Structure formats: C-alpha cells, structure tokens
Amino acid sequence: MQRLRNTFNNLWAALIFFTRLPFWRLHEPPQQSYSHVVEWWPLCGWLTGGVMAAVLYGASLVMPYSIAVILAILSRLLITGALHEDGLADFFDGFGGGGTDRERILAIMKDSRIGTYGVISLIVYFLLLFAALSYMSPMQAALTILMADPFAKMISAQMILMLPYARTADTAKNRTVYQRPGIVACILLAVQGLIPLAAYMLVSVFYFGVIPSLSLIIFVPSLTMYALYYYLHRRLGGYTGDCCGAAFLMVELAVYLCMVI
C-alpha cells in the first residue's frame, strides 16, 4: 500500500513539475517525490504531446496549416511554461559563453538572463521545428507529435542513468537532485516511451500504408543523446536540469527531422 502511495505521489509530482496545469490544487505530494519525477517524464509527454497534437489537427481544420503549427507549438509552451526551452537557452549560453571553465559554465546556466547563444539556439530550434511539422500533413504531424514527445523524453531520461548530477541540492535551481531510477522504474520508462512508438508504427502501416524506417527513428535520436552524453561527460563531468531539457528538445527535433527524411 505504501509503495502504491509513493508511486502515485511521484507521478503527481511529475505532472506538477513538468506542466503548469493546476494539479497542485488537487494534491500536493511530499518534497521527496520531486526527486523521482524523471521516472514519469514520458507519461507527462503523453499529456503535452496530446494537447499539442489536438491543437495542431483541430486548428488545421478551420485555418491555414502554418498558423495551426504555430498555435500547436504555443500550446505546449503554455502547458510546460517553456520549461525545456529555458533549459535549451541556458545550455547554449553556458557552453557558448563559459569556455572551458566548468564553474563558469554552471554559473551562466544558472543565471536567469538570456544571452546571444541562447537567443540564437531558440530561433534555430523553432525554425527547424516549424519547418519539419509544416512539411507533414496535419494528420501525420499530429500522430508524429503523439509519438515523438514521450519517445524523446524516454531517451533523454537515460542521461541521469549515465551521468552524476553536476551540482548539489543546495545549488540546484529547483533545490532537487533527481534520483537514478531502479530496474522497475527503467522498465516503466521504456513502456511509457515505446507504446506510442509501437502505436505510431501500426497506424502508419494500416492507415497510411507506409512503413516508417524504425531503425532511423531509433538510431538518430539515440545517437543525438549519446553525443550529448559524451559532450557533457567531457565538459561538465555530469548533467543539470537544463541539460536534460536541452537534450529532450534536441532528441525530439531529431525524431521530426528523421520523419521528414
């Protein structure tokens, strides 16, 4: 019973942490639950990806598709509070302006102000995201979003399995250090991320009559994550929350670009 209660609290903490929806009004989990939120990160992607996909497809029925794509992107920014985009900007600011000084990189990433590298990274990211989604049909883009969001979060979550946290709890932005998932949590992570991928493959085959390149969809995003792992291992010797957010957006973008290819 206690294990079930802990699981519920961890899941609820993840919904509170990764979205700006008022889940906290219904239940406030204990503080220690927030160190386990990454275990349920892909499941939160079911929610954020579902809303984004629904907005894109629904809006495409009544307005130009390019506007529907912009509204879909905006919907996820509103739901997440631009949490991951903030991480992407801080990541590029830190490594772009910090040089080879580890402590300077960490200090820049913690600074709330955005710099040139952060602005450029967001511009390039949103341009590529918009172009990739615009290249697909509304239905194909919506289904890809439903798959890509949780799948990319599952891959990015491996960062905390492979690297130690680069800060301490006292110096962390949210005063929380993520706990490494155990075997059961890793299995749950895989299930959360692979179910949407499997569903996407089935729909593509039976609805569109197309067989997507599964090896490409899995290999390129995974290679993106491992390249980031190697880079962080050499430059920081660990990861931060900003690094996880940046990893998710880059891995997800790799999924979209693979679908375009």
> Main beta sheet, described?
none
Structural class: mainly alpha
Number of strands: 0
Q: Give the helix proportion (percent range).
A: over 70%
User: Please, how many domains?
Assistant: 1
Q: Give the integer mean of the pLDDT values.
A: 91
| CA-based gyration radius | 18 Å
Strand portion: under 5%
Distance between the termini: 48 Å
Quaternary state reads single chain
Shape: globular
One letter per element, helices H and strands E, the order comes to: HHHHHHHHHHH
In short:
With 261 residues, the protein is an all-alpha fold. The chain contains eleven helices and no strands. It has one domain (2-12, 32-84, 136-260).
Question: Which descriptors apply to this entry?
Answer:
261 residues; globular; mainly alpha
Overview of the structural elements:
With 261 residues, this protein is mostly helical. It has one domain (2-12, 32-84, 136-260). It is built from 11 helices and no strands. It has helices at residues 2-18, 41-60, 65-80, 83-97, 102-110, 116-135, 138-156, 159-162, 183-208, 214-235, 241-260. The longest helix has 26 residues, at 183-208. The radius of gyration is 18 Å and the shape is globular. The relative contact order is 0.14.
List the helices and strands and how they pair.
Elements: H1 2-18, H2 41-60, H3 65-80, H4 83-97, H5 102-110, H6 116-135, H7 138-156, H8 159-162, H9 183-208, H10 214-235, H11 241-260
Helix pairs in contact: 2-3, 2-7, 2-9, 4-5, 4-6, 4-11, 6-11, 7-9, 7-11, 10-11
